[in-house]
Design a protein that fits this description.
This protein has 18 helices and no strands. By secondary structure, it is mostly helical.
Length: about 280
């Protein structure tokens, strides 16, 4: 089966770091296939880190900046994954990812993107900083007139995931509201979207992707680019967890939702990546 072959080749690249005839095979597939199904199969034939790098390059070098792609990838990938993406991006596009991002973004939004690119979160939980960080976040947002974006970015961009989960619990006890609600009231635009994505990924990466998938299919018209990108990039990472989160959050299975929103070979391929009905 074509899909199984594509996934095997992707896995082989991940294990061995090379796939000498993948490019030729992709070219051959493009001449035989078409439409969304072609795009999906070609994406599956592309090594995961190369796929992420290519999606970022497309987001930066296309007509206008696709901030949704920048936010999705940089908020959800681990520090090690981002370091690999940076290397592949430079090799494949002869350009530095940070330089290209800085050329297309600005302000506090750009600053947080760069911090995430550096992939240098602290390790572990610092018990002495939990309460202080929660109070600092409150003071930077809800607790003052205006918003101290610098302080929010410093905490959310540098503390470890485990530490931030403790901070968010302390924040709720302190303020009586979730950190997401506060960020929505205190920030706007791309910065707000990036901060919310970071918080959601800290709480649950599968939950973040479940929400992205739901929005890609339940808005007016299907956002096939987002649907395809997530299904391809997460199919061998945490798809079972995403399926469970999707069912819990929306009361319907990811499988049945894809069935309702797509057709043909493209649908069959997505359902294969989904892996089963819940």
């Amino acid at each position: 089966m074509l899909l199984q072959s594509a996934k095997r080749r992707r896995k082989r690249f991940k294990q061995n770091g090379s796939c000498s005839f993948c490019q030729d095979l992709v070219s051959a597939l493009k001449s035989e296939l078409g439409g969304l199904f072609e795009s999906l199969i070609v994406a599956l034939m592309t090594p995961a880190v190369s796929y992420d790098a290519s999606q970022l390059h497309k987001a930066l070098k296309g007509a206008g900046t696709d901030d949704d792609v920048l936010i999705e990838i940089l908020a959800s990938r681990t520090g090690e994954e981002i370091k690999d993406i940076i290397k592949v991006y430079k090799k494949e596009f002869s350009s530095k990812l940070e330089k290209d991002i800085c050329g297309d973004t600005s302000g506090h939004y750009q600053k947080l993107l760069v911090i995430l690119l550096q992939g240098s979160r602290e390790e572990g939980v610092d018990e002495e900083k939990i309460e202080k960080d929660a109070k600092d976040l409150y003071a930077a947002g809800e607790g003052k007139v205006g918003t101290d974006e610098e302080k929010i970015i410093r905490i959310l961009g540098n503390r470890s995931v485990e530490h931030l989960r403790e901070v968010f619990d302390a924040y709720k006890k302190l303020s009586g509201s979730d950190i997401e609600d506060s960020l929505e009231g205190e920030t706007t635009g791309n910065l707000e979207n990036l901060l919310l994505a970071v918080v959601k990924c800290v709480k649950s990466v599968p939950g973040f992707f479940a929400e992205c998938l739901y929005k890609s299919m339940r808005r007016a018209g299907t956002d096939d680019n987002t649907l395809m990108r997530i299904m391809v990039s997460r199919s061998e990472v945490d798809m079972l967890d995403i399926r469970a989160s999707f069912k819990k959050m929306y009361g319907a299975s990811l499988y049945s939702t894809i069935q309702e929103d797509t057709t043909g070979d493209y649908q069959k391929a997505l359902l294969y990546l989904c892996g089963g009905n819940d």
